[in-house]
Amino acid sequence: MDHVTPVKDQASTESYSNVGTSQQRRTRIAFAILTRSSKTELQGSKRFAVIHREFKSQIPNGPGKEANENGTWVCPFEYPGIPKNKFFSKTEAPEDFDWKVQNVFKIKGETSPATTYEGSDVLWYEDDDFAAANPEAMKLLETRHRFLEALQKTTEDPEVLKCIDRDQYLTKELFNNQQHLYWHYEDVSYYHNKIHVDYGIAGFSYMCLREEMVAPPNFQYIPYHVVKESAYKRCLASKGSKKYLELEAEVAGNKSFWSSKRTPTACEKPEKCKCNRIFQLLYKDTEDSLEDPRDRELPRKLLQPNKAGFLDLEHFNYISNQKIIVECSNACGCSEECPRRRLQQGQKKRLVVFYENEIIGFGLRAAEPIKAGEYVTEYVGTVLAPRNNNRNPSYDLGIEIVVEGLVIDSRKCGNLARFVAHACEPNAAFIETHSRIFETDPLIPRVSLYALRDIAIGEAVTICYYSRDKLSSGKGIKCACRPNCPNHLPKN
Ligand SMILES: C[S@@+](CC[C@H](N)C(=O)[O-])C[C@H]1O[C@@H](n2cnc3c(N)ncnc32)[C@H](O)[C@@H]1O
Q1: What are 460-482's pLDDT values in tens digits?
Q2: Is residue 39 part of a domain?
Q3: What residue's CA is closest to ligand 1, atom 4?
Q4: How far is the centre of ligand 1, averaged over its atoms, from the C-alpha of 74 (Å)?
């Protein structure tokens, strides 16, 4: 992907150590990883950890891990972070096995639901008390059904319509066919969603409504960036990583801050908010830069949320990538609920990674209504400083404002935003975001996904990957965003 068009952890179970001073960080790391933006354990190093090897997904602690070590049912596929072995039957599992509900299904002709349990391939027929005792699991079931009902009303694809029934009502035949790809979707959905649950953000699932299902996507799921050492050094050395007062002293010579006129901000503490000033100091174009013809997309624009955390994106130019959001840090003195900390607050709307077709592959769909200007999720991947421009652009998102020249690559490690499909008239956009909870944290580039207009349940969330001239070059993959779209997505 081209510009900002295509890019928080359950802590990695890799051995890692918390970072010390920035000097220590410079010498020690091989690979760095950002930890969750925890709101309670904030001071010091707990938000940032360093791992000394390449990131590798681990099976999270719990019944799944136990089953992976001792179960005898072996899955024919291997997915990172998903148990390969399960307990084959109730009698095989140890007596003290922690039976944790994995998923709930409706069965035609039955009033009570059926369930599967983590680490086990046994289906249980539950009694009438189950629903009252498991409200969260029932809520997930209802969300899935609402999504499928919405699709039933809007899709014209006969195969999708046929398969909606399979996902709404489990049959005994399907249950008895444990080799069916359907059950691998169940596992990948459950374990990836678990990472979101642990991280405190809204969940998601994978769906393939095809008679011949394709295998679920195989990659390492991370809810926050993994940062390569060379990119990390660039972040540490960037002006954006300075504390606010240091920046003020360096760029403005300490003169202008106290006398500068304050511009309106939605921050809870407008009299202390530093965000607009940070934009001025770091990102606003000077008269000189605007004269350079290469900067024709300038001037850069600061996008500010309203008091509810929504951006006004009615006239958003999705072709130009020169927009930035600046979020509050502790320097602003506001709370974690401040509307200018929307990315830090994390994904709140449930989404579905949905198999669209053989051309597009998987895309992202809304499982709840999303409003125009609303934050959807973050583009997460490996942050790296590319040595050359010969990269496959499919899963790359180039950073152009916050630590210019870095790339967020979600090919091997990433989150659900790596699936957002291209549309020539998109309903969402990626926006570079300057965001850190504490001024002492290094500034790592983050990218928010925002809705440009209202998005209904079941609708695909799309962005525009490339500029108009690239899309109309006639070379590359034929764009499948709508029937007979004349454009192409460049291959390199
Ligand atoms: C970032 S990936 C999106 C996830 C990908 N669809 C998958 O299943 O992993 C970008 C790739 O998706 C496909 N794609 C996305 N939108 C498309 C569109 N409108 N037309 C054709 N292919 C598209 C292209 O293969 C593109 O290189």
Answers
A1: 999 999 888 888 888 889 999 99
A2: no
A3: 419
A4: 32
Q: How far apart are CA 304 and CA 276, in angstroms?
A: 9
pTM of the model: 0.90
Tell me: do 186 and 262 sit in the same domain.
no
Query: Residue-wise over 188-198: b if at least 16 C-beta within 10 A, else e?
Result: bbbbbbbbbee
Q: Which of 192, 360, 419 to mutate to test the pocket of ligand 1 (most atoms within 8 A of CB)?
A: 360
Look at residue 25 in the predicted model and tell me its pLDDT: 36
Identify whether residues 160 and 234 lie together within a single domain. Answer: no
* From 213, 379, 394, 396, mutation site for ligand 1 pocket: most ligand atoms within 8 A of C-beta: 394
Report whether pLDDT(270) > 90. yes
Q: Do 397 and 292 share a domain, yes or no?
A: yes
Q: Are residues 411 and 300 in the same domain?
A: yes
Are the beta carbons of 350 and 384 closer than 8 angstroms?
no
Taking 60 as the threshold, does the pLDDT of residue 292 lie above it?
Answer: no
323 and 358 inside one domain: yes
- What is the extent of the structural domain holding 79? 63-200
The ipTM is 0.99
